Amino acid sequence: MPDEAEPGTVRPGGRTARVRQAVLRAAEDSLAEHGFARLDLADVARRADVGKTTVYRRWGTVTGLLADLLADMAEQSVPRTETGSLLGDLRANARLVRRTLTDPRQGALFRALIAAATCDARTAEALHRFYDIRLKEWAPCVGQAVERGEVPLGTDAREVIRAVSAPLYHRLLISGDPLDEATADRAAEAAATAARAGAYVVRDTGATREGA
């Protein structure tokens, strides 16, 4: 007999899917308004107009709900843009990250999820999966740049994509400096320049990770 799935990991259809979406949106609302510390399953059930027993039976714990929320966010995230150049692709990535982090709702939501991940292992694992999916989505643009001869063979695609978003998250979470479009463009340009110079070449593989 197969192992029973963890709460919140099943992807059902019909009414159950509608209930799931209502609960996840309610969880987003609560996180955006009050942060992780005040997230409560009973309050989420009230916001979603769903019975408390349904929420407790389906997700079990706050961390189970957060894990499912992150899985849903990964499923709904915007696909990557292909512009025909590495700089164009990285700029599109940086601007997408910047729009997400500066959106009043999404920015607050990501702050709350990151805060939750710092003190809960299951939420941290779900957050790692979320960003791994986003890295896999965007990494092929580096492989395409290798094929065009823009960057050296052996360039680590994931490191290039990380280099784009890292300064934007630094401003969001640490420095508090303005996070405008010019900042996003600079992050993309810096990552593209470093990639062209071979800063992200993995010397012992001889091939680009994720899509060469």
Summarize the structure.
Keywords: DNA-binding, Transcription, Transcription regulation. InterPro entries: Homeodomain-like_sf, HTH-type_TetR-like_transc_reg, HTH_TetR, Tet_transcr_reg_TetR-rel_C_sf, TetR_C. By secondary structure, this protein is mainly α.
Describe this structure in words.
The chain is mostly helical. The protein has two domains: 14-74, Homeodomain-like (Arc Repressor Mutant, subunit A, Orthogonal Bundle), CATH 1.10.10; 81-196, Tetracycline Repressor, domain 2 (Orthogonal Bundle), CATH 1.10.357. Helix content is 68%, strand content 0%. The chain has helices at residues 14-34, 41-48, 52-59, 62-76, 86-102, 104-117, 121-138, 140-148, 157-175, 181-196. Helix 4 runs parallel beside helix 7, helix 5 (86-102) runs antiparallel to helix 10 and helix 6 crosses helix 7. The chain is elongated. The model is unreliable at 1-11 (pLDDT under 50).
Explain the layout of strands and helices.
Layout: H1 14-34, H2 41-48, H3 52-59, H4 62-76, H5 86-102, H6 104-117, H7 121-138, H8 140-148, H9 157-175, H10 181-196
Helix pairs in contact: 1-2, 1-6, 2-3, 4-7, 5-9, 5-10, 6-7, 9-10
